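Posting for a labmate who doesn't have an account.
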Amino acid sequence: MKLDINVAGRSALTATLALALAACGGGGSSPPNAGPAPTSSASPSTAGPCSVANQIAFADDVLNDWYLFPNLLDNSVNQADFTTVQSFLDARVAPARAQSRDVGFTFATSIADENALIASGSSAGFGVRLSFDQINNRLFILEAFENAPGFAAGIDRGTEILAIGTDASNLQTVSSLLTNGGPGAVVDALGPSDAGITRVLRFAQADGTVLERSVAKADFSLDPVSDRYGAVIIQDGGRNVGYLNLRTFIVGSAADELRNAFQLFASNNVDELIMDFRYNGGGLVSVAETLGDLMGRDEIGSIFSQTVLRPERSDNNATRLFQNELNALQPDGLVLIGTSSTASASELVTNAMLPYVASSRIALVGSDTSGKPVGQFAFDLEDCDLRVRAVTFQTLNANNEGEYFTGLASVMPNTCEADDDFTMPLGDPNEASIATALDFLAGRSCTAISSDQGQIAQRAPASGMMAPDQPTAAQYQVPGLF
């Protein structure tokens, strides 16, 4: 649906308002009762329809008209004080951020880049997830995408990056970069996420082999379900347990890949599932709904989730019911493997399933999740390639539950603390989090997740996903991606 934005003193701009039923991003249809488009309050003297001032004014109108927590906007913020849309958004939503209601969830991005990401998983870079050990100043690979340059160069889960340079003559050790400049220095050394950017990397593979390779960043497609470990049958105590590792909900093809995974599960009589979303930052709610349908064989017509907007936008509220899916299961046991990088649609699915799995048979394993029971609509200033992702709705389950702003551990009936053992492959039943998930499903005891866990649980005592100050559309949705 096209909406005209009337800009005072200038010709009208056009924006597309897409109802993105996506926790942490995505796309979809327009609200049925969107009403008039935001009207810019930018000064007529502002030069150019795509000037920073006009873009900031557009973002401000979006927040005023649609933001889920209007009472948590800082109305003292002056548009003229900012030189980027993102810095303005950060300032406006600071009160919500202080209450953990919007921790980086409202952001500005490129329409073209995000649409390409949704359509095909298109991204550019080495195709790896990076995590840094803040205490020992080390940099590890948590995951490598199979069709990307990093994996082709021999870099995979468990690899340690030792040094980075533009060529072999100017390698800088990661330890010195982190010691002298922190994570930002490593990000700078790796260079922008543009195809063709080349870096020489010295790295130690998981078996200790040290290699030095020149690796060029390239365009690649994010495969949401790995062909190596995305869908696996784990035999445990004579039971077939379905293991699903979904990397992201943001790629539209993830829905069909999930259907393929559940065909494997159905053919092996699976009724216990492990959903490994430890690095899944969310994405399309439509993909989350497909996953819910695939776990709701006996719940067709029951409430999967509810979408709730601010009171004056309540005519856009919606209820999603379970729908029929071929090869759907009704899990007797369900485990989410999570970390602080597990967010959004990952949490939505788990919360939505709480009413439909016996409380003794559902658990969160790993560490506490991000805590994002809200999602964004996309507000597009098309001619300027500006998309404002503003928090506009909260999701609730069939029991009207959805207040997990501090993480899912606060609402899960069972939690089991476990390391993210990146020395072991994903999908391996001996990996610490997967082994703990199997223990829970088998009825064995575990240690509950402590309430003060804020870091990604790993063998390194304090570590976190690497992230640039100005992430690409893919980096917003796929934590740690480079």
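Reply:
Got it, the structure tokens are right above this. The longest strand covers residues 386-396.
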